[in-house]
Amino acid sequence: QVQLVESGGGLVQAGGSLRLSCSVSGSIRTIRVMEWYRQTPGKQRELVASITSGGSTNYADSVKGRFTISRDNAESTVYLQMNSLKPEDTAVYYCAVTIIISKYWGPGTQVTVSS
Known about the structure:
Distance between the termini: 40 Å
Number of strands: 11
Number of helices: 0
Helix content: under 10%
Shape: globular
């Protein structure tokens, strides 16, 4: 019913930048929160950034000051601007939206930062 597709991942050198996009489609009513997570093999998925319906943002300490989450006015797309990338940022990045009480996930996009 609700589908999310990430794009913008790839290979980048340390210190470089990438902007991830997540397009949301389907039956969309009220999105409570839009989020970006990341996961590396053998580790739990961690919350990287979130933005609420009111525009409030939160970031993991590890990315604060380097990453910026944003969305368009229609909430059809959520972005993650990633600057000053580090090798430890390498992960599969997932977007998620919460509608009413349900959370929907995208399939993920790979981000690899080389040193």
